[in-house]
Amino acid sequence: MEKGIAQIRRVFSKRAEPPSWIPAERFTGAYFHGRQRHRSSVKIGYRKFCGLYSGKTEGEHMIKGIGIDIVELERIKKLYERQPRFPGRILTKAEQQKFCKLTEKRKIEFLAGRFAAKEAYSKAFGTGIGGALSFQEIEIAKDENGRPYFSKPAEPHAHLSITHSREYAFAQVILED
């Protein structure tokens, strides 16, 4: 059974029926030709001319930035052992309270995950840690389902994912308009 592009090409060459997973109206002549296509292109052209067209429709969000960071747990462990004040430089007061309640192994994972998440946020924001942002200005909390989110600064359209393995902590941040 054909899948994907080959199946669609056969439909356009009139040798097959449209696949069930694509709406039938996509294959009507009005969709690809004629007045409907002309109307939509004129609307977009007019909106571009007037400066009203942003490329997105109402309710959509465009990606403003993507940040990714990976940290070795061993590196964070060595930093923590050499510099006991390291968590105080990375974590906010609320995060430090959670940090103090954890076991030693879990402390390293928590610290590495927060470090990676804050670095990823600064990369997505486009500034990096230092000038415009510091570790103390970024706070990560969890919702009732355990999903991490940025509570400070409050970013309603920021998506955060943190994961750990035996050797690494990884974080990804997507910021939307």
TrEMBL record:
Keyword Ligase listed: no
Pfam families listed in its UniProt record: ACPS
Gene: acpS
Main localization category: cytoplasm
PANTHER family cross-referenced by the UniProt entry: L-AMINOADIPATE-SEMIALDEHYDE DEHYDROGENASE-PHOSPHOPANTETHEINYL TRANSFERASE (PTHR12215:SF10), PHOSPHOPANTETHEINE TRANSFERASE (PTHR12215)
Reaction(s) this enzyme catalyzes, per UniProt: apo-[ACP] + CoA = holo-[ACP] + adenosine 3',5'-bisphosphate + H(+)
Localization: Cytoplasm
Names of the cofactor(s): Mg(2+)
Domain 4'-phosphopantetheinyl transferase: 65-171
Xref: Gene3D superfamilies: 4'-phosphopantetheinyl transferase domain
Spans through the membrane: none
Family: Belongs to the P-Pant transferase superfamily. AcpS family.
Keywords: Cytoplasm, Fatty acid biosynthesis, Fatty acid metabolism, Lipid biosynthesis, Lipid metabolism, Magnesium, Metal-binding, Transferase
GO terms, biological process: fatty acid biosynthetic process; lysine biosynthetic process via aminoadipic acid
Its job: Transfers the 4'-phosphopantetheine moiety from coenzyme A to a Ser of acyl-carrier-protein.
Class in the EC hierarchy, top level: transferase
A single MF term (Gene Ontology): holo-[acyl-carrier-protein] synthase activity
Residues that coordinate or bind Mg(2+): 69, 119
UniProt keyword Transmembrane helix present: no
GO (cellular component) term, any one: cytosol
Species this chain originates from: Heyndrickxia coagulans
Name of the protein described by the UniProt record: Holo-[acyl-carrier-protein] synthase
Xref: NCBIfam families: acpS (TIGR00516), pantethn_trn (TIGR00556)
EC assignment: 2.7.8.7
